[in-house]
Design goal:
This protein is α/β, with parallel strands linked by helices and 665 residues long. It is built from 16 helices and 31 strands.
Length: 665
């Protein structure tokens, strides 16, 4: 097939090319071009299957990986890369060219219904893990789609509401993860639904120019599904493809072109990028080769689940010992009974295999018969109160009682935000009643974003965050509970005590406008500035091991400031420790957050041994965005380097100076 340029296309063909074909394909112009197939989603391929009449039958079953929030909780670049590589294999199996992922939007509000799809409240963590995910995916010959560009941080009236954000906050918080992820050269990006400072994301030329001219993005930009209001305005701004095909928009687009409302030069620019995408995908197809078997991909899913689960509280009850008299309750413990161990919307994946049965898995590992009763549905009691009564009797008779609680697709989903940070009342009551009857109560939480645990947090012995853990989550969870694996995940977002404490709470929000009045003080930045107590801080997570930090050494090289320090495992269990590096300016001429994450590392340390952790901070780790000069700027002065086990547990400190833009020790 001859490789075409825009000169080979008529104006009519260019207009048609920019409007896609159906829901999931670029237009082939009657066979003149290769066709590109796109598909959801970030944690598993969601490819639709149609009958002979073209009517949707089902989504084809695929491997369901843990939610992106769980991937972020691993703080493990290798896990992010493996997930991308494994998803590439799944896409190859399903003949998908571009996966509509990942999403790097910042978790500004704990109630956002899609928080489970996003990495973090911190742009550095989000951007660096997204880079690995994209690079892993595209190394397998499958394209990525970086989304949702940008300032899309709530589902509430997402098609119309304007995110009102000042320039510096946009640059340092909401655009930064896109900038970092663009280093992986994603083949495409997707605009958001919302307005940014009054302009629809699909028509935001300023944003598209930043993406292309500053971040080095060289792919095609297309719309989120039905995000285009005016196809001509979107094309003039630089949006290349509208998804899905919209006959009304297409006809208006053609009429506008004939009326001279869009120039040939503007039309050619979009068409050229779509042609580049088409041929780029065609070249990538030639390199495709499945690297992992399905069993190996399932092992990756299990590994990510294991490293992404976070032990939030442990009064010595875990790990469980063999022979422990144990009871389990809650529908999440055996989710084959309900389809609620994932968030809802475009990220939802039809399971390939059977869902896990936690009581059975624990019984096999501990050599006991585990008493189980579902007791409640996620939103309410099951058939009657008698079911809950039975579960409580089991708890009364047990050494350890486990309550599996959480949210699920009915509560956390695309298109809706949560009503509350708290669990449904029936679940809170079940936790409290179980804790009254069993002094060693373990709560396992299946959810995708921060929860208010104030009603019961102090009444239970253990809190383990299992998140939306995907297809291998049951095995991973059972291993962690029984000590076959050691918890190593840490929170990628702060857990405030309650919604009212969250940094975006009380800022102006109506059906038309959301004002980002907290500015730079998102998540831990705001809690630290205010000195506000939180339930669990950013970067927090317990282990069965204990680690000591020693001997911070700094050196300056071509790549930036390199940190080396020693981690000592002062326990009798092998473990992994996530170390976080924050930067704090000593004196500022502009407002700076109290401290900001600029590096991290995850290090394996054998029991009783030491290991050296090393990471490098790039020069821009000390920069802020100057709105006065419209550029990134690093002030001369003193900066503190803080090495911590969490944002609130700083173990090592040092100071460096910056003079004339150079680091001085």
């Amino acid at each position: 097939m001859k490789k075409l340029t825009v000169k080979d296309l008529t104006a009519e063909e260019k207009l048609r090319l920019l409007c896609s074909e159906g829901f999931w394909h670029t237009h082939s112009l009657g066979g003149k071009l290769p066709q590109v197939t796109v598909s959801d989603g970030p944690v598993g391929v969601r490819k639709p299957e149609y009958d002979e009449k073209g009517v949707w039958k089902r989504d084809v079953p695929s491997i369901a990986y843990p939610a992106i929030q769980m991937l972020a909780n691993t703080w493990n670049r290798d896990c992010a890369r493996k997930m991308g590589e494994s998803l590439a294999d799944d896409c190859i199996d399903s003949e998908v060219d571009i996966l509509l992922a990942p999403g790097v939007n910042i978790k500004r509000n704990p109630l956002n219904g899609r928080n489970f799809e996003y990495f973090s409240e911190d742009p550095y963590l989000a951007g660096t893990l997204a880079y690995e995910y994209i690079d892993g995916l595209q190394s397998g010959g499958v394209g990525a789609c970086l989304k949702h560009f940008y300032a899309n941080n709530l589902e509430y009236n997402r098609f119309e509401q304007s995110s009102e954000v000042d320039e510096r906050t946009l640059r340092e918080i909401y655009l930064k993860p896109f900038r970092l992820a663009c280093r992986a050269k994603p083949v495409s990006a997707m605009c958001a639904y919302n307005r940014i400072n009054g302009v629809y994301a699909s028509e935001n030329k300023k944003g598209f120019d930043i993406l292309r001219k500053e971040f080095g993005f060289d792919g095609a930009i297309y719309s989120d599904w039905e995000a285009v209001r005016n196809r001509t305005a979107a094309a003039k701004a630089g949006l290349d493809v509208e998804f899905p095909f919209n006959q009304k928009n297409y006809e208006a687009f053609v009429a506008d072109y004939k009326a001279g409302l869009i120039s040939d030069e503007e039309l050619d620019a979009c068409a050229a990028r779509v042609l580049e995408l088409v041929y780029r995908c065609e070249e990538m197809r030639k390199t495709r080769k499945v690297k992992r078997s399905k069993q190996e991909r399932l092992a990756v899913a299990r590994e990510i689940a294991q490293e992404g689960m976070v032990l939030l509280k442990n009064d010595g009850v875990l790990p469980l010992c063999k022979g422990t008299k144990l009871s389990v309750c809650g529908e999440f413990a055996a989710p084959g009974r309900c389809s609620l161990v994932a968030g809802g919307g475009s990220a939802m994946v039809p399971w390939q295999g059977e869902l896990f049965n936690l009581p059975k898995l624990l019984g096999e590992r501990l050599g006991v018969e585990v008493k189980f009763d579902a007791a409640f549905w996620p939103k309410g009691i099951g058939s009657n109160w008698q079911k809950a009564h039975k579960a409580l009797l089991y708890a009364e008779e047990s050494d350890v009682a486990i309550v599996c609680a959480g949210t699920g697709a009915d509560i956390e989903c695309e298109g809706n935000d949560r009503d509350s940070m708290r669990l449904p009342a029936v679940q809170e009551n079940m936790i409290l009643e179980t804790a009254r009857r069993c002094s060693k109560t373990v709560v396992v939480l299946f959810a995708g974003s921060a929860l208010d645990m104030s009603a019961w947090k102090d009444k239970v012995s253990v809190i383990l965050w299992a998140g939306f853990c995907g297809e291998g989550g049951g095995e991973a969870l059972a291993d962690l509970l029984t000590g076959a694996a050691n918890p190593s995940g840490k929170l990628s977002e702060s857990f405030p005590l309650c919604l009212e404490d969250s940094t975006s709470y009380g800022t102006y929000n109506d059906p038309c406008v959301a004002r980002y009045q907290e500015g730079l003080d998102v998540g831990y930045r705001g809690y630290d500035r205010q000195g506000k107590e939180v339930a669990f801080p950013f970067g927090f997570g317990l282990s069965y091991s204990s680690f000591e930090y020693e001997g911070l050494e700094l050196s300056v090289g071509e790549k930036g400031l390199t940190l080396r320090f020693t981690l000592k495992n002062v326990s009798d269990r092998d473990g992994k420790e996530i170390s976080q590096i924050y930067v704090r300016p000593a004196v500022c001429f502009v407002y700076r957050p109290e401290k900001e994450l600029k590096g991290y590392t995850k290090t394996f340390v054998a029991a009783g041994k030491t290991a050296v952790a090393e990471t490098t901070l790039e020069a821009d780790a000390f920069a802020y965005y100057s709105t006065a000069q419209d550029r990134w700027k690093t002030e001369d002065g003193i900066y503190e380097i803080l090495v911590g086990a969490s944002s609130r547990d700083i173990r090592l400190q040092a100071k460096i100076a910056v003079k004339d833009g150079k680091i001085v020790l």
